[in-house]
Design a protein that fits this description.
Aminopeptidase; alpha+beta; acyltransferase activity, transferring groups other than amino-acyl groups; five-stranded mixed sheet; Acyl_CoA_acyltransferase; GNAT family N-acetyltransferase
Length: 144
C-alpha cells in the first residue's frame, strides 16, 4: 500500500521539487520566476503544503492567512493543484481538508479561494466533492 503524507515545503530545494506540479497550474511561470515569487510570498506569510505518495509530490496547496471585513480571519488558498497523473484519486480533497483543519487550528473562520472561470472541472470539484459554496466573482484590472 502506498504511503501518503502532507508536509510543509520550507526550503528552496523543496520548492524547486514542487515546480513540475505547480507549473501545471501556473503555466506562465518558469522555474526562476516561480522561486522568486515563493521567496517573496513566504516572507509575507505564504505557506506551501504538499501531498506526497511514496515520497513523490502529487498535489500542492499554497495558502496564506488574511483578515478582512468580508470574511474576517480566514485562509486564502492561492494555489491548489494535483498532478495530472494523479487526479481523481482524492489527493486534492485530502489536501483541502488538511488546509481546513490547519486553518481552524490557526483561529480562522473559513477557507476561501478563487478559481478561473475556464476551470469548470475545478468548480465541479469545489462544489460537489469539497462541499464549498460559490460566494462571489473576482474582478481584476491590469495596471501594466
Amino acid at each position: 500500500m502506498a504511503e501518503t503524507d502532507i508536509q510543509e515545503l520550507v526550503t528552496e530545494a523543496e520548492w524547486r521539487s514542487a515546480f513540475p506540479v505547480m507549473r501545471q497550474l501556473r503555466t506562465h511561470l518558469d522555474e526562476e520566476a516561480y522561486l522568486d515569487y515563493v521567496r517573496q510570498m513566504t516572507a509575507e506569510g505564504y505557506r506551501l503544503f504538499a501531498r506526497l505518495v511514496d515520497g513523490e509530490i502529487v498535489a500542492l496547496a499554497g495558502i496564506e492567512i488574511q483578515v478582512n471585513m468580508y470574511y474576517g480571519r480566514h485562509v486564502w488558498v492561492c494555489e491548489l493543484v494535483t498532478d495530472s497523473d494523479h487526479r481523481s484519486s482524492g489527493h486534492g480533497l485530502a489536501l483541502l481538508r488538511f488546509v481546513e483543519e490547519w486553518a481552524d487550528e490557526q483561529g480562522c473562520e473559513l477557507v476561501a479561494l478563487s478559481s478561473g472561470v475556464q476551470r469548470t472541472d475545478a468548480h465541479r470539484f469545489y462544489e460537489e466533492r469539497a462541499d464549498m459554496e460559490r460566494a462571489s466573482y473576482v474582478y481584476k484590472q491590469p495596471l501594466r
